[in-house]
Amino acid sequence: MAASFDSGYPPPLTSEQSDYLLSNIRDWSILNGLAVRPSSSFVSEKIDPSRSLALTAPVTLFPSLFPRVCFDEARAIQTAYNELYASIANDEEWLGEVVKELAEVDDFISNLWDVHQAVKKEGYVQDLSLGIFRSDYMVHKHPSNLDAKPEIKQVEFNTIASSFGGLSTKVSALHKHLLSISAYPPPTLPFISDSSLPPNPSISSISRGIAIAHKAYNRSRENTRLPLCTLFIVQDPENNAFDQHALATNLLTDHNILTFRLPFSTVLSHTHIPSDSPFRPLIYTPPHSPNTLYEVTTLYFRAGYSPAEYTSQDSWKARLHLERSAAIKCPSILTHLAGSKKIQQILATPSSPHLSSFLSSTSSAEYIGRIRDTFAAIYPLDDTPEGQYAISIATDADKARGYVLKPQREGGGNNIYGLKIPPFIKSLGNDSKKYRGHILMELIEPPALRNSIFRNGDVKSGEVIGELGVYGVCLWRHGRGQKEEGVILENWEAGHLLRTKGRESEEGGVAAGFGAVDSVCLIDV
Amino acid sequence: MAASFDSGYPPPLTSEQSDYLLSNIRDWSILNGLAVRPSSSFVSEKIDPSRSLALTAPVTLFPSLFPRVCFDEARAIQTAYNELYASIANDEEWLGEVVKELAEVDDFISNLWDVHQAVKKEGYVQDLSLGIFRSDYMVHKHPSNLDAKPEIKQVEFNTIASSFGGLSTKVSALHKHLLSISAYPPPTLPFISDSSLPPNPSISSISRGIAIAHKAYNRSRENTRLPLCTLFIVQDPENNAFDQHALATNLLTDHNILTFRLPFSTVLSHTHIPSDSPFRPLIYTPPHSPNTLYEVTTLYFRAGYSPAEYTSQDSWKARLHLERSAAIKCPSILTHLAGSKKIQQILATPSSPHLSSFLSSTSSAEYIGRIRDTFAAIYPLDDTPEGQYAISIATDADKARGYVLKPQREGGGNNIYGLKIPPFIKSLGNDSKKYRGHILMELIEPPALRNSIFRNGDVKSGEVIGELGVYGVCLWRHGRGQKEEGVILENWEAGHLLRTKGRESEEGGVAAGFGAVDSVCLIDV
């Protein structure tokens, strides 16, 4: 079936059609845990002090059109991406060079590196590392070439706290359910069908990743007699907890693995490493059952990724404490660092040799080329020839139009778009350090799409932008020292996510309040 | 394992234990649709005009202790109960006599009978009838005989809108889940175990009942070419809709049967019976898709049972319209009438021959005796010897202590307990009609139990009373005329429900605001 983005999809709804669609979304979502806790601006703490209320997670009414060729390509290259980032995490020396360069503009990166150095000095006791990654893409259509085929361009690669895998399976199922109960009116039928809505096993596939780490730990451990558990290191409060609960429930029901949730801020109070054990097991003492100690096999971080979470020296102590333990980290500090923006920029700088060197031992030049094709050009603002080229663009209103300026620092926000770039650059004066604190990235030009977003009980319709995430699971053994290379033990593509936001909002992030979880409706374009 | 009711179950919880238990209840319930919409007194319409918020259904923190022998007996006799009520619904002549007697005190019953008479006059076109029943019991322990074994005594038998089958499977699963994540502290372990928490298939088993009716209709229908559906006739708004959604979802996923929800008040607007069809198919026109007509196979009433719902002549027109259609009714008017309190009273009057006569063709005297053992004695307040005996009790403060006076009218409420009975009788004066408007029922004396109820974010702990419901599904062919007897086609026990309320509240009813859904923790006493 050939269809195009501008064929009037989705159709307008009568008020009766809209009522039917929305009431089914409201009900099915709660029946199936596609839910969030309301923000305090929606329901005040006074009304619900125990935080018992929930509501439909922000979702789109329709699955968004997405080119099948782009979807297939994003999935096809995920295992190569997993391998790429595992290789980077294994190359401590190279990572160290990058961090050294960044240190002066980014304390956070530099503090993470210090944690790694401290554990390295003492000696790591766990050489297995688990990655639950998500590579995020937008569809790019060259604005001035109407015949150009759509391609995927990477927005970012997440190596820590890759979220929404728990809700994503469910929103795919929601849209299929709405199809099955005839909630999509006939004009949608050339688009929405069983074959255009692909299965999405993100919950089971990501959980299986945690399960294989758990089992690998179990095989390797010394003869302790404690019961085993995995720990989800979480933020508190967490409105998006149902996303995480879906994984924990799957671990229990499909793998018989017990999971506890531990707020990052309470790590030091409830875990310890026995001082007499060279293996350094991480022992968790549940507050509700202080006489039952658990040995932690796997630490799944859904917190600790944002500089704002490190509020005191104790936060860094906690991170060090976890890193030096025998638990398998998802991710390790080195894997966390591999996901920093700076790494993406280095790989995507047009003349960079690094992509090939990280993948050449296992991947063909053709395959490496396909990875490279997903990069939007990214430039440093420094003294290199690429940097000088970038500065010439960033200071020229006409050329800057197709670019975005991003801070090197982790933590999101503060992107400068298009025409706003030259005056911003001017405001930096001649401070080359401030220049180096930013990267310049080619703007991706996604096709114009329409959809409606249901959020906090309201519907907003209009032009939207979709961002496809593909999950990847990778378990590997870190190489230690110069001679020993890392070994990848497991590596698979693990489902996908579509997030959709109103075109007017420049910053993404569903939990941050701008977008919605969505599913793909594949079209052949 | 022998245990007793007074062994300190459930144990007190530390605040950490309580936090862990409650946070898991709050999260698991939303993840699995064990939910209700909040009442407007909890969340005002202003805050959530689209009614998108939901919260944990009222549940108990622990499964309540329940004697295994009582549980087994209640389940064992359910198919006999199903047959009993199907036989009553088939005996139109006998029902007519009962209604005639009631007519002067109960317009509602009399109006229902008129609907039946009108359809009978025209001729019924559907002779299949579906019952989804629930027989409710309390455990009774003779207060003055400490050695007496606990027995079950029937509170009522529901033939219409037997609710909570959708939540009941889930609360059983919730308590099992809490056990599996060690949320129940060690002192509970002599009680709570995998073997003391029985499986509860109410969702799948009740849905299967609707599915067999749907399929039976399909086999019998003339050659229409319309798509088929089942209709849930519902109240609007309905805070307990998730209970119903669980059944509708199961019908779709396990039986590929499409269900629509239709508020009772809108029946006449959205359904019709083609005037030219002698088969009288009920045609549903969904407001969201007015060009797609559906033929309704099965009408599942979750509304229309309370006099308060019949607000105008149109309500009765709607009920007549549905009854005369070819759709299989769950329940038919005659089945609805069979569930009236008066019938229960007639069966349970100690000298009554009716129980035996309804069951003697298929059941042994021993089996009939087991049914009779579940009756608490019920007396009319009339001129019969039983009636005179009852009046002598009701006017004597000392004897009345062990009784409850209930209005004959349907619709609940206004029960008069124990010591309050004699002054109430006095207030009736000498009006024998007002006397006949009531029945006197032996009070059931349930054992003292403790539990905690989580409701609207609050926990209340204390003495509670449990009420066990056993679901039954029955599909039968009505006998027409004097010679043709009814034939039971399907008959099974369909899961169970435990509802628990604070001992201080005299009226039951979870949705009404006093109680919670619970599950049984079986004990051998």
UniProtKB/TrEMBL annotation, chains A, B:
UniProt pathway: Sulfur metabolism; glutathione biosynthesis; glutathione from L-cysteine and L-glutamate: step 2/2
GO MF annotation list: ATP binding; glutathione binding; glutathione synthase activity; magnesium ion binding
Protein residues bound to substrate: 134, 160-163, 238-240, 244, 302-305, 499, 510-511
Database matches in InterPro entries: Glutathione_synthase, Glutathione_synthase_a-hlx, Glutathione_synthase_C_euk, Glutathione_synthase_N_euk, GSH-S_sub-bd_sf, GSH_synth_subst-bd, PreATP-grasp_dom_sf
Binding-site residues, ATP: 156, 341, 406-415, 417, 441-444, 467, 501, 507
Catalytic function, reaction form: gamma-L-glutamyl-L-cysteine + glycine + ATP = glutathione + ADP + phosphate + H(+)
Glutathione synthase substrate-binding domain span: 229-338
Cofactor(s) this protein requires: Mg(2+)
EC number: 6.3.2.3
Free-text remark on how the cofactor is bound: Binds 1 Mg(2+) ion per subunit.
Any Gene Ontology CC annotation: cytosol
Keywords: ATP-binding, Glutathione biosynthesis, Ligase, Magnesium, Metal-binding, Nucleotide-binding
Family the entry assigns: Belongs to the eukaryotic GSH synthase family.
Protein name, UniProt field: Glutathione synthetase
Organism the protein comes from: Imshaugia aleurites
Lineage, uppermost ranks: Eukaryota, Fungi, Dikarya, Ascomycota, Pezizomycotina
